[in-house]
Design brief:
The chain is built from 5 helices and 7 strands, in the order E-H-E-H-E-E-H-E-E-E-H-H. With about 190 residues, it is of the alpha/beta class.
Length: about 190
């Protein structure tokens, strides 16, 4: 089975492809000739995942799935949330984003946070959503060089390491994206 993943983020594509069996091949936006930036104008993570999947289905007529992810920090009233990728500006720079989070949390003892991923699957005219949430906390400093995005400042509950210090295998098992992808996979396996 080949299915379009509405993303050109090579890190994300590689991470999800590792989670899928060999029988399911991911096709990127680039591979279907979609080079435009799909607008993410919704005010929820669910909304952005739906927008991206619907864009591919409507404009390319292909079955696809899309995801959107946000880091939600309790002391910041759920921010950066839906604006996680561009929290520190349109340049979408991970280091700038992490620095802004750490700066905004300077006066806060409560570092509770969660990562949330929503995957929207458009398959044979049906739309299904899958959600993965991992709880944890924001560290005081960046630590680790694996992963991407906010991984160096997010420590999942029950672990002493940040996502950027964990092995890819461990992270994929417990992460928000891993949990949502496992639900997607169970659904796709039921179709084959």
């Amino acid at each position: 089975m080949k299915i379009v993943f509405a993303s050109n983020n090579k890190n994300k594509i590689a991470e999800i492809q590792q989670l899928l069996p060999d029988s399911i091949q991911i096709v990127s936006l680039e591979e279907i000739g979609c080079f435009e930036e799909i607008p993410e104008t919704a005010d929820t993570i669910e909304g952005n995942a739906i927008l991206k999947a619907d864009y591919v289905s409507k404009n390319y007529g292909l079955d696809c799935f899309a995801d959107d992810t946000g880091l939600e920090i309790k002391a910041l009233n759920g921010a950066p949330g839906v604006y996680s990728a561009r929290y520190a500006g349109e340049q979408k720079n991970a280091n700038d984003n992490m620095n802004k989070v750490l700066s905004n949390l300077k006066e806060h003892q409560d570092r509770e946070a969660q990562f949330k991923t929503v995957i929207t699957l458009n398959y044979k005219g049906q739309q299904t959503l899958f959600t993965g949430i991992v709880k944890g906390e924001i560290t005081y400093d960046k630590s680790g060089d694996k992963g991407f995005g906010y991984d160096p400042i997010f420590r999942p509950t029950g672990y002493n390491e940040t996502f950027a210090e964990l092995s890819a295998a461990t992270k994929n098992q417990i992460s928000h994206r891993g949990l949502a992808t496992q639900k997607l996979l169970a659904f796709l396996n039921g179709l084959t």
